[in-house]
Recover the amino acids of this structure.
């Protein structure tokens, strides 16, 4: 069976270090013939560093479904960017609310960075500092309007984040999600993906690439995991998470601090 897992607050905690029990459970699943696919809101460059830290070489759906890569072979199996005209309409709408988001782009594996910043980005300052090592300072939004995979902003007031998300949806310009409170940066986190993109669409692309039936188990914790858990044959959510309350999962498992992921081999056997 295909087992799809979120990473943050699911496979690892806020320290981004997977518990030994989780790594052992992963090895147990793979030894039993299961395929494990990560599905995360993180960027490929960021995933690469964290996989190296944890000794992992998994395939991954990144940016909530916009792009996918097998980290064992560095093959990309999926990539969906915004239509350039729709992107500029979207940026104008957000700009009218004083929102100037960070642009996560397809860097096509080239050096330089997979983040592009507008002038005076309005994301939370510590988020901008975190992104800085991956910012391509040689590029502006107008240079990459065919390569934008996701728009991201942290530290927003909740009412503004929800207002912006509602307007994005009303104009069918993308999939907007509000995650709150942001556990790292506070306030509300707004992400906007291209229309029709979710972790499920990324999983479907992976299954097509590998020739697998689209039947899977999934585990997650956040608002960006809801579609994934709803589509899964076996759904698992982290205790006391947003997904545990909103997704009606088949199983509730403990958080990473209590090695909850280690229970998955028994749940999918």
């Amino acid at each position: 069976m295909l087992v799809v897992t979120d990473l943050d607050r699911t496979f690892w905690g806020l320290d981004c270090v997977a518990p030994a029990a989780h790594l052992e459970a992963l090895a147990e699943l793979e030894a039993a013939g299961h395929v494990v696919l990560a599905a995360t809101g993180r960027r490929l460059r960021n995933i690469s560093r964290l996989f190296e830290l944890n000794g992992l070489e998994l395939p991954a759906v990144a940016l909530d479904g916009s792009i996918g890569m097998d980290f064992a072979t560095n093959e990309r199996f999926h990539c969906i960017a915004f239509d350039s005209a729709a992107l500029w309409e979207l940026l104008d709408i957000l700009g009218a609310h004083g929102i100037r988001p960070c642009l996560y782009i397809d860097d096509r594996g080239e050096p330089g960075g997979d983040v592009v910043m507008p002038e005076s980005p309005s994301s939370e300052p510590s988020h901008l500092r975190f992104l800085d090592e991956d910012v391509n300072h040689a590029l502006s939004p107008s240079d990459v309007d065919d390569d934008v995979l996701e728009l991201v902003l942290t530290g927003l007031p909740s009412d503004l984040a929800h207002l912006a998300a509602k307007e994005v949806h009303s104009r069918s310009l993308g999939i907007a999600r509000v995650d709150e409170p942001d556990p790292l940066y506070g306030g509300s986190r707004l992400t906007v993906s291209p229309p029709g993109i979710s972790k499920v669409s990324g999983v479907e692309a992976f299954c097509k690439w590998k020739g697998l039936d689209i039947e899977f188990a999934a585990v997650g914790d956040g608002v960006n995991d809801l579609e994934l858990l709803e589509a899964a044959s076996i759904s698992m959510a982290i205790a006391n998470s947003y997904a545990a309350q909103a997704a009606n999962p088949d199983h509730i498992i403990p958080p990473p601090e209590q090695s909850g992921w280690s229970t998955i081999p028994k749940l999918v056997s």
Summary: The longest helix spans residues 84-96. The radius of gyration is 18 Å. The longest strand covers residues 148-156. The domain at 84-193 is CATH 3.30.1240.10 (Hypothetical Protein, Haloacid Dehalogenase-like Hydrolase; Chain: A; domain 2).
